[in-house]
Amino acid sequence: MLDMLRMSLNAQAVTSFVVYIVVAALLFALFQFAYTRMTPHKEFTLIREGNVAAAVALGGALIGFALPASNIISYSVSVLDAVVWALIAGVVQLLAFSVTSLVLKGLSARIAKGEIAAAIYAASVSISVGLLNSACMTPAT
Fold first, then answer.
1. Residue 57: how many CB atoms within 10 A of its CB?
2. Which stretches does DSSP call E strand in 3-123?
3. Averaged over 32-55, what is the pLDDT?
4. Residues ≥6 apart with Cβ < 8 Å to 56
5. What is the model's pLDDT at position 38?
6. Helix residue spans in the chain (DSSP H)
7. Range of the domain at 70
8. Cβ–Cβ < 8 Å for 111, 122
9. Taking 70 as the threshold, does the pLDDT of residue 141 lie above it?
10. Cα Rg, the chain, nearest whole Å
11. Is 66 inside a domain boundary?
12. 3-state secondary structure (DSSP) of residue 7
């Protein structure tokens, strides 16, 4: 049992974990920063004020980014490969919000007013796009 644990937790495996988790956290923070700057409403201010719609919409976007990012990390051949594809995943999510804003007029204002229906739709689009994005970002066979 101890030998199996030693094999699993070798220095290279632990180092790789630390590198990838730090890179993933930085990419997640970068996406969150970009998303909250791109949207006209101020997510964190609204969330601090108890606006559930803002939390739902932001949460959906974060999940929509994390889904392909986790897939990318699983299949990447290097940290640089993971970073490039995660940045592409982030751009796709930002585009998803932009398109959703065109489809659902006044989306940002509706979220700011606390309209749950608009936030659920935005979150659903983000998560759906994230799932599709994740499925598309697999190694070519």
1. 33
2. none
3. 97
4. 116, 119, 120, 122, 123
5. 96
6. 2-8, 11-38, 43-48, 52-75, 79-103, 107-112, 116-136
7. 25-136
8. yes
9. no
10. 18
11. yes
12. helix
